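User: Can you predict the 3D structure for this chain?
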Amino acid sequence: MRAHIGIVLSILLLGQGRTLIAGAVPQQLAAGDTVLSPPPEPPAAPRRSADGRLAVLAARAERPVKVDGILDESVWRDAEPVGRFVQSEPRQGEPATEKTVVQVAFDDEYLYIAAHCFDSQPDALVVNDLRQDFDPDNQDTFQVILDTFADRRNGYVFIVNPEGAKVDWQVANEGREVNTSWEAPWTADARQVADGWTTEIAIPFRALRFNQTGGGVWGVNFARNIRRKYEETLWSPIPRSYSIARLSLAGNLEGLPASRGGRDLRVKPYLAASKVRATGGPAFSNELGLGVDLKYGVTDALTLDVTVNPDFAQVEADEQQVNLTQFSQFFPEKRDFFLENSGLFYMGDAARKTSRGIEPRQDTDLLPFFSRRVGLTETGTPVPIDGGLRLTGRAGRLNIGALAMRTRAADDIEPNDYAVVRVRQNLARSSDIGAIFMTRQAVHGAGDYNRVYGIDSNIRFPAEVDWSSYVMRTETPGVSSGQYAYRTSLMREGTFFHVKAGVMSLGDGFNNDLGYYRRIGVRKWLLDTGLRPRFRSLQRLGIREMHPHIVWNYFEDQSGRMVSKRLHTGYSVFLNDGATLQIDANPAFELLEAPFQIARGIPPIPPGEYSWSDIQATFRSDPSRTVSGTIDLIGGGLWTGTQRTVRVSVEVRPSYRLRATLQLSRTAAELDLPEAEFVKSLWTLRANYSFNTNMFVDGLTQYDPERHLFNANVRFNLIHRPLSDLFIVLNEQRFMTSEGISPGRSVILKVTQMLAF
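Assistant: Here is the predicted structure, written as structure tokens:
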């Protein structure tokens, strides 16, 4: 045991020491440090390309740039400066209140980006996190998006805060799909200086897919978030109803070399050792796992991923919620292998971009491809995966995604083969058409299968109007009719007025073993509309925007009988500091066709028709503050009776290293049934500590008083090299009763090492 403790302490000290040596956590410049020369001033009239877009010229660096956040290399004296940022928030179209100067350079291996973010109050910079993939909305950041094929649709986003913490995303179809789990072996650093802060970014060409014969022009945009002012600015202006992912409005990056991609071969083996006892189990079992992931750039634009015996033990546990519906809970995908390039497989309705804060929640009624169906049961229990292949990228104007996986037998689950093929053809200005094929086939049963075919389109019209549609057909043995689904919706997303209307239908025989849906045999009519007025007089009083809105969802069966209805009528107020307030009323109707038990120990709700209404009030304080919180109050009807629901969340951030969040969700209800009073509660505590930008500890604990169930998940992560990790994971599940059920417990050690060739 002492030896084990010594090893862990050595790892901690090594990680901390590496930070001090490598300077991964930048400090404010002190006396005697390098004095930076003022960056070149951007021209008063910005340069534009022949197509009318803003343009920046990349300069060749004669020697590698030392990425330390200090802009003292000679290339930064010569590279073309750009700036003149424009606000998208709070005052769209007006010049930024603080100056930003950006320069771009390259050598044979890397693309370099430097930014000098001037600030009239450098001591007021807001930094809330050192974590990789932090939340960029609640702190000062610099962002860059690269559209490496200049197709004005897809790109890579890189974000840095004033302490050098990093975020990287993949975006597809101008933000219709955003993959926040994409990772690349890039580096960045930042420094706080007397007149603001500076940052340097180095992105290896081999980590990006791009057209090596495309003439050296990429799409590009730069953005900056000044959090204390709640100000968002961009180099190439974009309306506030969209984000930096709106690549059709981006500028041009010129002067890049025609061919610098490299083969990008990455081999990432892992070793995992675990000691596990199931809840109620008699003893611990020891397990040792070996596996490998391989990534290879087949062409300039196509990437092959291979995984053998993948392991996802380090993935954060699912966060439970109080469920008052007759449907199972929806949990998002968190496994990296399935998240990377997931946008290429996406098929469905485009979620509209909204202002940050409280918005009506969008129901997930059908996700045609839901990767959690592979390697996980309905309850989230892992199913062993032998291996899989994934091919993603593009050929000309055609986007391609192909996935094949095989799972092993586990308990009562038979081994299965899964396959998905997705293609999408770009059309005209940011429009596309596509097709998808999915199949699940039992390894040992030729008659046990499920197949899905579908086509879709996303058409963009002038005046910010989008039309999205899909049609699907399924094949399942023994089912002969109703094996279809379709959806079509028209959406206009404007800065003042937005509207979205459409219809979705699932046939009585629809069955998709690789999708997520709540019910079949229904047709859904939807309407989502609202206004976003802004008045200068109210902004002076602290109110940035108001948002009266209506969200109407109406379900009927295929014969036209109403089976569900929810009319959400709300009024949101967004304050200048990022706080939000919303009041709404929600009439609802449900046709229950089977008994439904809403809570333990009470009689099931019998089949029948149920109507009720509730009133909801929600307030969220400025999330960038040291102490912030949310309170959500719901009162009114619930099924056959009444409810009183309180959801409270308090977050404390004493520094950018430490964050703790305590949440309580509690519903007290009285139903018009015998002995049908119940209370459902859930306590959640989440804590994060960052030793530096490469070493973190995360903790998630939850307690369900109704079941007396306690769950805990603690993860230690050391990034010992780019894309190479050491994980130590502790899991605990126990029933806090006197029944003597032994707790479930596991300790997992996992090491990965990325080898690049």
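The helical segments are 2-22, 75-78, 336-339, 536-539. The CA atoms of residues 33 and 550 lie 57 Å apart.
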